[in-house]
Design brief:
By secondary structure, the chain is α/β, with parallel strands linked by helices. It is built from 15 helices and ten strands. 44% of the residues lie in helices and 15% in strands.
């Protein structure tokens, strides 16, 4: 049964559980961003995590709690890419069979990573079709289904990033994270607010997929019009009953939305810092021009969630001739 009463102890136990398998990623001071916004900005580099994104944390946290029968039957997940890669990698390390259902337009670099880790891949027209098919397969064949966000193991694992930030920057004022289905952000809220309620947690969504921004304002899950986004990891429908929403609605300090152009500008800026970052991973940086004047004199940690993008797609995005927003 899915836990909805997660607490700091669950997050600490998750950290102990996954510690042998993941990296305590660097929290790096970024001179350029700090200069631009007259403040102290640190980047939590989950793009340097195993598999190139934070998602492996949640997969290990879940798979390490499976019993022998569940391990033998295997695991299944729908994914836009990074969740599937994290699951495939963790399953490969633990000798568990993994199936990943992808949308047919998944980034080629992510497909290659999944193949490398031995996942059985099936493609669908959309991520929602992949999700529904994965649920049906899990029921019919008794695979363990692993949502990228609507799962207590994923939330607790997201909180482990908060614990690492506090170890490396005890007096952090604001933590900014991308916000898709909310697993990472919900975990951050639980970890950071339990240790220091004065720390602010900000979530960043795309203007094209602003579900949590709208739900948070309405105070409940309501219908939201969605458009495609280059940040596929932050896009698409979210289950209205997700356990992440009550946590986020209770604890989040702010939810911002960013445009496609702002995402591309942030990707370019990260390249200046020697990091090739996928659109979803750059969302926290993309919001800075909107809020820069509010950050002066504060210590800000931004989570760079992933790097998994093919060079051809990255080059196509950042070389668009249409003007983009400058930092």
């Amino acid at each position: 049964m899915m836990r909805t009463n997660l607490n700091l102890q669950d997050i600490k136990e998750a950290r102990e559980r996954i510690h042998p398998y993941i990296r305590h990623t660097p929290l790096e001071y970024n001179w350029e961003l700090s200069r631009l916004f007259a403040t102290n900005i640190f980047l939590k580099l989950e793009n340097r995590q195993v598999t190139g994104s934070f998602k492996a944390r949640g997969s290990f946290n879940k798979l390490l709690t499976l019993n022998q029968e569940q391990r033998e039957r295997g695991v299944i997940a729908p994914s836009a890419g990074n969740h599937g890669i994290g699951l495939a990698y963790a399953a490969h390390q633990l000798n568990i069979h993994a199936l990943v259902y992808l949308p047919k337009d998944a980034d080629s670099s992510k497909v290659k990573a999944l193949e490398q880790f031995g996942a059985l891949i099936t493609f669908f027209d959309t991520i929602e079709e992949a999700r529904l098919a994965a649920l049906e397969a899990s029921e019919n064949k008794d695979y363990t289904f692993l949502s990228a966000y609507n799962n207590s193991s994923m939330i607790a694992a997201g909180g482990t990033i908060g614990l690492e930030i506090l170890e490396d920057l005890t007096d952090v004022d604001i933590v900014i994270s991308c916000l898709g289905g909310g697993g990472l952000t919900a975990g951050l809220c639980l970890a950071l607010k339990a240790i220091n309620p004065r720390i602010e947690v900000w979530g960043v969504q795309t203007e094209n997929s602003p579900t949590f921004a709208i739900w948070n304002e309405a105070g409940k899950a309501i219908s939201v019009d969605l458009e495609p986004s280059i940040a596929e990891g932050l896009s698409g429908p979210i289950e209205p009953e997700t356990i992440t929403f009550p946590i986020i609605h209770r604890h989040i300090d702010r939810i911002l939305t960013v445009s496609e152009k702002e995402l591309i500008a942030a990707m370019k800026l990260m390249l200046n810092s020697q990091y090739m970052v996928e659109p979803s991973g750059a969302a926290g940086v993309a919001c800075l021009p909107q809020v820069g004047s509010e950050l002066k004199g504060r210590k800000v940690a931004i989570i760079i969630t992933g790097r998994n993008i093919s060079w051809s797609r990255f080059r196509s995005l950042v070389s668009e001739t249409e003007p983009v927003i400058d930092f």
